[in-house]
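yo

u said u wanted the structure for the complex thing, so here. seqs first:
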Amino acid sequence: MKIKRRDFLKLSAATGISAAVFKGATLNALAETPRGTIDGEKPGEWKASTCQGCTSWCPVEIFVQDGRAVKVRGNRHSRQNDGVVCPRGHLSLQQLYDPDRIKTPLKRTNPKKGRGVDPKFVPISWDEAMNTIADRMMELRKSGEPEKYLLMRGRYTYMRDIIYDGVTKIFGSPNNISHSAICAEAENFGAYYTEGMWGYRDYDISNSKYLLVWGCDPVSSNRMIPAAIRRLGDVLDNATVAVVDPKINNTAAKAHEWLPLLPGTDGALALAIAHVLLADGLWFKEFVGDFKDGKNLFKAGATVDEEAFAEKESHGVVKWWNLAVKDMTPKKAAEITKVPAEQIIRVAHGMAKAAPNVAVWMGPGAAMHVRGGYAAMAVNALNGLVGGIDNVGGTLPSNKVPTRKMPKLDAYQDELAKKQSKMPKIDQRGTKVIPALKEGKPGGGVVTNNTATGILNADPYEIKVAIGYMNNFVFSCSGAERWEKAMEKIPFFVHITTNAAEMTQYADIVLPGAISKYEKLCWVKQKQNRYAQCTLLQPVVKPMWEVINDETEFPWLLGEKFAERGFPNLIDFLKKEFKDPETGKEATNAKEFTEYAVKYYTQDMWNGKDVGGDKINGWEEFRKRGMWNSDPQPYKKRWGGKFGKDEEKDGKKVTTGTVSHKFEFYSETLKKALEKHAEKHKTTVDDILAACNYTANGEVAFVPHYEPPFRHGSEKDYPFTFIDYKSRLNREGRSQNAPWYYEFKHVDPGDVGHQDVLHINPADAAKLGIKDGDAIRVTSVAGSIECNAHLWEGVRPGTVAKAFGQGHWAYGKTAAKDYAKATPRGGNNNTLMPFEIERLSGANVRNGGFTGVKIERA
Amino acid sequence: MPDMTRSDAYRLLAACFYEPDREMFLAENLSANLGLLLKKLSPPAEEHCRRLQAGLHENDQEALLLEYTRLFLGPFGAPAHPYGSVYLEPTRRLMGNSTLTVQRMYQESDIAQDIEGPPDHIALELEFMSYLAGRTARTEAHGHTTEAADLALRQHRFYNLCLAPWTMPFCEAIRANTQLLFYQALADCLASFVSSEMPRMQGMAVASSLPAA
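structre next:
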């Protein structure tokens, strides 16, 4: 905040009292104005926007009075959340009005970087900030090495393409790295290599007769939270609810069955349920098919002749039985998982009785393991066995949201950009040990956490300039300490963020980011309750400071600066390809560009075109409503051999979805992808799997099967298995500076208000001589944290659990205990959990019992 | 003309809470002039102004800017946020009801904010008091006694409802978190001056036939 007028500093008396009297007021920040509206005179107004506290991306309305946001509710038009929000929706108000937000561009004046090192930030103008960034980036182009620019994306809206693809590719770098692999890519792997869909499923729980929740807590996370909160009571009345999770969660606390398996043994439990369904002749025959002579040949331990079975919508059920299911009896699974055999049988029989109105709701806990790819497949395969795929009360894909694709940018890439943007990426995807087989393509998926490896080892090359937005990988990736070292190594880093956090500690320039729910104009799409949605995020209040829309305004400003330096390609792309669809005008500034771009993407939902779903008359009505609902997702859409399809593209056959076009218990799709990857590296699939920490050999590699958990730390030295879970108050890791986060922390089962607690079974605590509330130190092979002990029966002996969220050492005054000394408030789970990835999908590992810990009094 | 002197004092104090520009502060004799004003209004503050002057000479621009950033901007949690609501609201947030009271009082005096940020920034509140005091002086000089009384009443209300309740904890936060002479002295100046305003505000209340706060 600068003084605008020098005479603001002058004495009135300097010109003589009488002169001063007649001179009038000397003002700087204030101005005399004709009488306008006085606060409190006008009624408030509900304004539409979208909550990004989690990936439900709820359409919401915000009550704004006297320019201030005061209340949040679900959008009344929403068929997803029925006009309600979860606790996160309300918590966001404390984010918006957080005094610790970044208020102005800042530059670092201390060249030394590290934890506990004061960056000595000072405020600078937007112009200086953007000039500095453009200069540093253009140096890379001048020296012919634009690939050394890296964009690290965290949470996003669907305006992401502009900064993620547009800026990166036109500039000439291959390094647009998203956060997706620290989210739940292994979960998507499970769905893709069974049902051919790389994406999160929708759940028709209003019509379920059996809901098997696996490794998540739908009322606190996993993409339809308000809907799940609203419906769970009815579901409990109308259906059987069973929850598989090593610790009790909100849903498990209300459920009919809780299956507290040992961490990482999900594959064995899923196979045992499958075993019962098959051995007892209870699979859903309309989907899977039947033995030709009607006689069930699935007997424990016995191999079955594939020719004896005629499948319908699925592929390879007999192969799967022979390779992985026949020997996984409930008794054997009980030994592995510690879930009683009779409970396994009861659950399987319950599912069969309710079939096909069964939803197996798979969350990251089932998948984000070192060897979790196959566990995810096994859990999702159950949806096939009971016929719940695309069925009433089961799991569903999404209806199409008719948004436009980003315009082609090839014409704006010069020769340098075309060449360098095809170079290998810094996350090392597609190398022998990291297949990252997204949608069947070796190296097709992001390996977010491995980006630190690439930076540290300068492999395949060094990174010289990096930009991060809406992310904090130094805190949110397991093996967090590696990221500290990686960030120290980047010579120039720009962080666009609402609040300074651990990643900002390494920034050379900090830019104040807008809070998406209240200050940005953009759009997202999601689905819940059979309805897909397109929903706008809108600036419902005037930002208190000059904050920036990271995905649109930043690229525009950068494009202008590039043009001043003789490289107009980016700004030309933004101007020419994102004209106002209504008037055809080119944007003249960043805000106009943002609006034109949002209009461009969403136009088919409001311009009179018949795309189904809500009918909206024009852009203004769309902004007022804030959202569009699709028609309901039809059932059985992919039945009849439509789980995959082949198309001709540039003279080649291209398959999307499953190779067999059926639901695959034997994954021809995974087989093709693994063989392609092995061929690329001139080796065998067995060798690839061994290099990826898997134990499978031969044909087992192509079916959902059980892999024993991979654990860091011996049971002797680290006797407890650590479980990480997410707080229902985590707004994607952005709520820890809100006082309500601590005040209401007890809404997470077993957690304690104003504390960060490790849940320990009382029997284990007694052996350690630890009492409830004791300060403790928890140590793994990766690091140590301090927190409080909470004795709780919601975890089984031998396992301990702690919510992710606290442990910030660089953040605002509420979230960090003492920034100057880098002392965290509570402990970061990612300090304990070592760097590890599920290599077939590229996913960051945070589940599956891969971290052994020991516990001592602090 | 005490109101004009007070107006100047509020204004120069407000200037000190902007991003420091040492060269301009020195060229305009900011601390020396403030000392002259406070000598009349709040004699103990004169010594603090001498320290402020010394601080301005002793600390270079870089040191002043770094300390300004650390104290008031953070970004890792500023120890002395310059916004009233941080001290007056139970949850340490911006744009609380106290902020809207400030905004409403600006509006009622036909004043608009001409700079970004919440309206209860210390510099804005001090500038508003400067404005009210200056207008009071001018209306009195023109013999508009009714309007002058109304303006005195506005000063009284704004001082008691908005400025004074958080000035002391704010100054304490600065003192507890800085070693830099300029900002130590600034906190002392502000605390001393705002305290010295209390009896004058009571006097205004009496003159306007209001019960003293």
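The mean pLDDT of chain A is 96. Chain A has 27 helices and 36 strands.
cya
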